[in-house]
Amino acid sequence: MAADGDLKPIKKLSLKENYALLTRGLGWEPTYEKKEEIFRTIDFEGIKIHDWEKWEDPFRLTMDAYWKYQGEKERKLYAIIDAFQQNNGQFNVTDARYVQALKLFLNGIVGLEYASHRGFNILGREFPGVGPRIAAQMQAIDELRHATTQIHAISHYNRFFEGMADFPHQFDRVWYLSIPKSFFEDAVSSGPFEFIVAISFAFEYVLTNLAFMPWMSGAAFNGDMSTVSFGFSAQSDEARHMTLGIEVIKFLLEQDPDNVPLVQKWIDKWFWRGYRLLALLATMMDYMLPKRVMSWSEAWTIYYEENGGALFADLARYGIRPPKYADVTIKEKQRVSHEMWSIFYSVRNAVGFPVWLPSAEEMDWFSEKYPDTFDRYYRPRFEHWRELEEKGTPFTNMTLPQLCQVCQWPCIYTEPDDPTEFVHRETEYQGETFHFCSDGCKDIFCNEPEKYVHAWLPVHQIYQGNCFPEGADPTAPDFNPLVAALQYMGIKPGVDGGLMSQHVDASRWEQWTSRPANLHEGAITQAVRKTT
Amino acid sequence: MSVDIRTNSVKPIRNTFAHLARRFGDKPASRYQEIAYDVQSEVNFHYKPLWDPDGEIYDKRRTAITMADWYALKDPRQFYYGSYTTTRAKQQDALDRQLDFAEKRDLLRQLPEEVRAQIVFALLPLRHYEWGANMNNCFISAYGYGTAITQAAIMATTDRLGMAQHISRIGLLVDGNSGESLTRGRALWIDDPAWQGLRRRIERLFVTRDWFEVMVAQNLALDGLVYPFFFQQFDKHIAASHGTGLSTLTDYLLRWHEETAKWVDATVKTAAAENEQNRAAIVGWFLAWREAGIDALKPIAERVLGDAAEAALGAVAAQLDARAAKLGLKV
Ligand SMILES: [Fe+2]
Ligand SMILES: [Fe+2]
């Protein structure tokens, strides 16, 4: 045995050297099976990669460091969630309207996080390089984290409020939740390069701050400690994911000039797809948060026009231009949340949460934040609807709207240059007519019609009789197809939608907290009147 | 304050989510249950995947195994992301102390040169075995069906990267951080005839399309031979004449394998018990991959254990067969 003194002292390793050694050369060139049989999905999109080694993992996180870092964050997060639950923190939020926004979040977003987990699993298996596979695998497990912690952060609310209990069921069936669902399924059903451009770049890098900052500060402003803690805990994950997004784009653009037009096409498509998805967020921010952080218009100005502008100026050297129809998003920024809330209000009996009209005070805020549009187009509408409510004949619309074949929003967006004119775009494919909310969505369809004809459009499906609960008998004399469709979606007619002032969440809220369910409208039950 | 008194007496209107209440009754669900069940989409898929135009995004038909309820394949460890990462972080803290100790005492560098060479020969190519197992588990999490299986599989995926990195650290303790042992291990994996059987099988799994077969082959049959062989039999062989320095570092791998085997065993056992076709398919896969694994290990065992190879491999195979019998795979 060698004597102690004979050994040279061990060389100290820097973090970077340590990472390089631990992961060095883990992969190898297969010789017993054909490479194209092992990595079957990386060629069909036409992206050319000459050297996978040029894509270095930007994080250099070894698994032991990952476990410790993430484990510590989880420990802190669950300490807060536990305290929140013990102290019935759900009653500390501003009012019962805030909880309605959480319903959209749980029912519409958790499913996306899980789909993202699956998409990155695929990349974690299918990318031939070690660096990109590890990066994708870490994001795959991070996205699982997001789905998990969102459920855990919101789980306690479900015990006290309606409309959250069946969130996976609703995600698969509710008509407006097909907006987020189809978005992510579009990405996951694409090839791996389109997926990573769509999610890591267009969504995480270009648009995530927009989803993140206003929404998480909104939760903080409205006293929702549970969701805020989840959000801030996820922030360092997001920072890694955004880094991956920008690294990926540069890698693809540097590998081959032929990649540039493909990447540009995907940026155009996914920017527009992501923007339409965020219309849900715009609506939540402007209409559902009782205390507002900033308007959608302000958020779009800062997080897209300013930050995005700088980004695309930087990418110009690769031959990349800003996304097509970015100008339309700027024209729409003073309208989109008002138009979407109007839809939810008018079809409120087919929605999974109750709605309300903006109060006088809120309308003044809108007038200030939306000087070019609110008083001209939307204030008169809301004031008229308020009169109807007061007369006991609230405005309602029971016809199901025409949905856009691509983004799946009802086709009630207005012309970019005329807020009084609805957009109608359509095209024929294989003898059938397809409808769109915008030129952006129409372009996406026309580039890949064979993909989008398969879209599961809820309204079409309802009319075709595919959305009835098991055991329903459409020939029965008292059969009501709309009620049956709501049951199928997991929406309880008479419980889940309707007006906030008549909703069971509101009356329970007042009994439990002695505070008004709608801060701006005063009490609706004796429970509050007694104590104030 | 009156508000506090009132809120403390508030009774929830339900105890859990409706999909969990349908499974387990309306009682508070565990954090594992809240993520493991039903979160994956089941119906109304929008598009045909460009990478599998005949399938759905999530598709039960990507394996020959059938289940009335895919959520029967639950993880007995009840790992959700938070419990998984905090458990691994804690284990890693303990392991760091072992690694520290080994480094300070030069536990591996002091071993005679031929023993160090043996360790490099036997253990360092396993970095690549682990990287292959990482890819195979990622295949399961990519194409498996149901939240329960995909979340456990992505944890297994990152675990295998962690194991590859841990084996790399053992190499660095042998070579004093020069990385020579890693280079040597890689050359052995790629070129040494003794290692080719195992590499060939791992590459075969890269083109095996049935994710449940990959599960049985990688996580039950191959791991069920590789782990006990290297971290029990080989380790015992080194310890017999050179002390337990190496064992303090391989013990982690063995403990990890024992823990993960709980998930693997529960999954295989439940699927095999589901119906006769499942059992037959699993037995077929198991037997074929068990044979392949023993074949692949034979030349390595002969090189490192010489005359003792046959007995060691026999012990390992018997251990695996006993385990398989408990899972209902009569062999
Ligand atoms: Fe996420
Ligand atoms: Fe659209």
UniProtKB/TrEMBL annotation, chain A:
Determine the domain of life of the protein's source: Bacteria
Ranges of residues in domain YHS: 414-456
One GO molecular-function entry:
hydrolase activity
Alphabetized, the UniProt keywords read: Hydrolase, Monooxygenase, Oxidoreductase
One Pfam family for this entry, by name? YHS
* Recorded coiled-coil stretches: none
Instruction: Name the species this protein comes from.
Output: uncultured bacterium UPO41
**Mind telling me what this protein is named?**
Phenol hydrolase subunit alpha
TrEMBL record, chain B:
Q: What InterPro entries has UniProt attached to this entry? A: Ferritin-like_SF, MP_mOase_hydro, Phenol_Hydrox, RNR-like
Provide the protein name: Phenol hydrolase subunit beta
One GO molecular function term of this record is: oxidoreductase activity, acting on paired donors, with incorporation or reduction of molecular oxygen, NAD(P)H as one donor, and incorporation of one atom of oxygen
Q: Pfam family example for this protein? A: Phenol_Hydrox
Entry keyword Lyase: no
What are the coiled-coil residue ranges? none
- Hydrolase as a keyword of this entry, yes or no, is yes
Which controlled-vocabulary keywords does the entry list?
A: Hydrolase, Monooxygenase, Oxidoreductase
The source's superkingdom equals Bacteria
